[in-house]
Amino acid sequence: MTNQLILIIEDDIEIVRILQAYFERDGFRTIAATDPLTGLAHHQRLKPDLVVLDVKMPKMDGYETLAALRRIDDAPVIMVTALAEDLDKLQALRLGADDYVVKPFNPLEVVARARAILRRAQGGRQSAVLRAGRLSIDTEAHTVLVDAEPLSVTLTEFRLLAHMVRSPNRVFERGELIDACLPEGEAMNRTVDSHMSNLRRKLAAAGLPDLLLSVRGVGYRLDVPHG
């Protein structure tokens, strides 16, 4: 099972639905945008593990979008387009794309290529362990430790903690946490609050009563001492 987030930037809603269905069937989480500016905003907020990006889009094409993505992040990108010319492929790769798929495509192939890219990217990382003060999260083993002692959490609680630990002391809006961490059917503010309440209780029992804080009217943050 994977917890990785795929961002799909594609103006054809039918293609979006197909890709989301195949990625989610394979255990990925997805978020989609039908225009580049919304896609860039999603990317900035949610830090996806991989982006599937269309080339032919109005106002801002995929090459411009890819260049904008590369100025802020190095997440893997698969370009999906009807353009089959070698020059188009070379341009995408030169701008920093990791792969290139031509329409019409087999969605199973797109998912398989995404898996291969993510596997290579994971192999290049020095550590899959995220740390915040006395808390450590192993994103591969799906374990949470407080002072080296295991903390029992649900899958959704794990997703919430892992997402927030990547940006300690930052305030996360409830809507962002829903998009990034909660499966379909759970997407309600009060559901986030319920998960957070359980998580705060577990952290307090483990000796971290002040780690997870509620920010009134906004959302939540992890209060991690500097240094």
Topology:
Blueprint: E1 5-9, H1 13-25, E2 29-33, H2 36-46, E3 50-54, H3 62-72, E4 77-81, H4 86-95, E5 99-102, H5 107-124, E6 129-132, E7 135-138, E8 143-146, E9 149-150, H6 155-165, E10 172-173, H7 174-181, H8 189-205, E11 212-215, E12 219-222
Parallel strand pairs: 1-2, 1-3, 3-4, 4-5
Antiparallel strand pairs: 6-7, 7-8, 8-9, 10-12, 11-12
What does this structure look like?
With 227 residues, the chain is an alpha/beta fold. It folds into two domains: 5-124, 3-Layer(aba) Sandwich (Rossmann fold); 129-222, Winged helix-like DNA-binding domain superfamily/Winged helix DNA-binding domain (Arc Repressor Mutant, subunit A), CATH 1.10.10.10. The chain has eight helices and twelve strands. The chain has helices at 13-25, 36-46, 62-72, 86-95, 107-124, 155-165, 174-181, 189-205; strands at 5-9, 29-33, 50-54, 77-81, 99-102, 129-132, 135-138, 143-146, 149-150, 172-173, 212-215, 219-222. The strands form three sheets. It has a five-stranded parallel β-sheet, with helices on both faces. Helix 1 (13-25) crosses helix 5 (107-124) and helix 2 (36-46) packs parallel to helix 3 (62-72). The radius of gyration is 19 Å and the shape is elongated.
